[in-house]
Amino acid sequence: MDITQASAEHQVCKAQFDTAMAKLSEQESLITNLEATIEQTKGELESLDRDWQNSILSALGVKTEASAKLSIQAGVARENLERLRVLHDEARIRLLECRYNAAEAGCTYESIDNKLRAEIFAKALPELINELTPALLLIRGLCELLGQPLYNAEKKICETLKATDTAESVGMIRGRINDTESDTSSPLRYCPEKLPDSVSRAIRNAPSPVQWSAARQNPEKMRDLAEGRELCRGWQ
């Protein structure tokens, strides 16, 4: 896979992951809102039950128009509460599917990201090393002229490389990338941004492929995963 192809695939995988995460976020918001509505409805039902009881007692046990109205309202609230709980259970199962899809998209995105970075590195490193050729020739010549082992020079070069300031070096290569944005022949122009942390979180927080396959065949296992009785093992 060449860099151009890898870069194009990288953009597609990123878009697919972003879409999967948007659906996951939407589902999480739905569940949060349903839980709030359930609590609100429970409170309303408790209040209606108390009001109905007080209405009956204040009428010395006689059913009145007010108590009948409260009874109807409580019945509607109780029915709504049950329907909300069903919706909540269904939403949690759908959330599992969204997490699984996000993890699948995240793994694909991470894989192509690694491939693209490796391709860019393999192409860009020799070009940068070529810029060092004059200095490297001088160092090699110095070793030969003075009869010093090449190992000592290699060791010193590695020490110097490791001692460089990371932030400064990253800033310099970013500057080089900016300078080559219009150069279609430069591999550096294809450098991707840092892989977002949401990728690793999506991969960790999802049911594993084995868990998901088993859950699709077993409703009880699906409920265990959805309700947290069985922890999602993630993809890695």
Descriptive report:
The structure is a single chain. By secondary structure, this protein is mainly alpha-helical. The protein has a domain at 3-120 and 196-226: Helix Hairpins (Orthogonal Bundle), CATH 1.10.287. The chain has 8 helices and no strands. α7 crosses α8 (219-226). The longest helix is centred in the middle third of the chain and has 67 residues, at 65-131. The radius of gyration is 32 Å and the shape is rod-shaped. Keywords: Coiled coil. Residues 24-51 form a coiled coil.
- Quick one: biggest sheet? none
Helix content: over 70%
Taken in chain order, the helices and strands follow as HHHHHHHH
Radius of gyration: 32 Å
Keywords: Coiled coil
Coiled coil: 24-51
List keywords for this structure.
8 helices, rod-shaped
In short:
With 236 residues, the chain is mainly α. It has a domain at 3-120 and 196-226: Helix Hairpins. The protein is built from eight helices and no strands.
Record the SSE blueprint:
Layout: H1 3-58, H2 65-131, H3 133-146, H4 150-163, H5 166-179, H6 197-204, H7 209-217, H8 219-226
Helix pairs in contact: 1-2, 2-6, 2-8, 7-8
